[in-house]
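Exercise: predict the fold of this chain.
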Amino acid sequence: MSDDETQTLHRAAGRAAADLPAPRIPAGDTPAPWLLRLIAVGLVLAALNLRPAITSLGALLEEVRDGLHMSGTLAGVLTSVPPLCFAVFGVMAPRLARRFGAGAVVCAGMGAIAAGLALRPYIGSTAGFLAASALALMGIAVSNILMPVIVKRWFPDRVGTMTGLYSMALALGTALAAAVTVPVTGALGGDWRSGLAVWAVLAAVAVLPWAVLVRDRTPAPGQAPASGRAEARPTADAAPALRITRSRTAWGLACFFGLQATAAYITMGWMPQIFRDAGVSAGTAGVLLAVTMAMGVPLAFVIPRIAARLKQQGPIVVVLGLCGLVGYAGLYLAPAAGAWVWALLLGLANCAFPLALTMIGMRSRTGAGVVRLSAFAQSTGYLLSIPGPLLVGVLYQHSGGWGLPLALMAGLMVPQMAAGILAGRDRTVEDEC
């Protein structure tokens, strides 16, 4: 959830665009080099801000709970807010982009992230903290959806390169917030409010390049001017309807996406607390989360390439699922003694996310089908992922330990593997519909 798009969706968008006649534009309308450089800087800065709101909170969750007198159940609600916001607000992004332009929406999204992160530590109530968090996550949701769109629009001949740059920036922001939030908090006097609010500065910096792009009307490469509109309405809307809900593969992908998102948000929200309860220091617990998140940087490039060479992706699904099962078992049996091993194994298990997006691109024959399958799998998946972090909080609160929550996490790996095997079969949704 998802976070929030990777190389697979970019390739799908490219296939969809290839099915349409390319409009001709005058040679003088090509974007200036300085504009493309500014957009590249804006993409990197925006990507850096798409996860710190979540992982910085995970590193200081115990202090936030104590400071706001928050129960374990309410903390579970807090860790369920990201997928809820991604599901609810993410669907608004295409409509907002058609009306105001993608650059303007991303600029507003960065502003919302900055405002939410700056306000939430100082509101002084759990409800206010949740509301400000939702504001930041709304900005993340719309920006998360539009980043790949902007890459495809402005860098059609460098999609792979720009996607890699954007993906690495996203993973870097995720790991950085997990690793340095606790040390930064200590350097700022030990106040958790300052430790959380400092990430608003990074979001405010990301507003600057997008503020320049809000009024820019230079046509993207290969795109005609939008005749007074911020951006032309996508002609792909005219593609014939595909009843995606009739496909077992689509439902398998949605369940697989939702269960891997559940595991990811439980990990980001609760893993530092598991280590801290086992006697690991707060700083080390944050670094362990950073290691888990950083595993996605190299593997996001490796796993899709391996998956694309296989007709069926079930074996990869099983391997990643087994890594998760061993990692959760280790957290139960020896959380402190084998902390680094469990962090690495859970980092491998979290790479089910790029695998899910790869399968979305492989389970449809047409670009339009990939777009519809992606929308269905991700929106349904994020909705399915909402109860998981909340249930972990409830079990932790009422059982007084991590035995039941870890049993739940491990138990969810079994249906995740089953759904992934179903989604990984060599067939397309067009055949099933």
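Check your answer against the key: The mean pLDDT is 81.
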